[in-house]
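Why do we care about 3D structure at all? Because function follows from shape, and shape follows, mostly, from sequence. That is the central idea of this module. The next example makes it concrete: a single protein chain, its amino acid sequence, and then its structure expressed as tokens.
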Amino acid sequence: MFFGRCNERSRVLYNIAEPTSSSKRLLANHGDHRIGRTSLLQALADKDIQVQHTGRELDNTTFEYVDLRFTENPSYPAVMGSVTSALFKKDSLDIDGLSQFVQICTKQNEYLNSGVRIVLLIDEFDACTGDVQVVKSLLLAFYFLTQNYDIVVIIGSRDSVLETATKFKGSPAYPETIQLL
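And the structure:
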């Protein structure tokens, strides 16, 4: 049973359950070590919590959890390979850039437009924040997904990813943040 974080859960689940044209589909929850980022991400897929916060189960919604802490090499190809593997239920592969990721998504167009909302829960994003270009490329890839498909991306990270991302704040790929205190 997950306790606390009621406001944060409600805010995120409302964005998923009742998307509007102004709903942010790229979110980042961040906070200090051991504050509950992972628990919050995992709780979002719980049907009981969905009912508690939205009044109903989120039908036609699938939650895919990716823990980047276990990515052996936190490079763009390895991280996007992990994300692609979770998204399309395939073996992990290295993806060398955004154009290759877009090509893979285009080939999976039928699946991505099947009427099922996909919620990508990206945990431990800090694992790849050592390189500003990797972070920027990943956020642009996530932004591409949220703009072209019925996909919501929720990133869990410590503050460091937000510090890195602020270098291009104002970009449409900058996530709406939910700070956990």
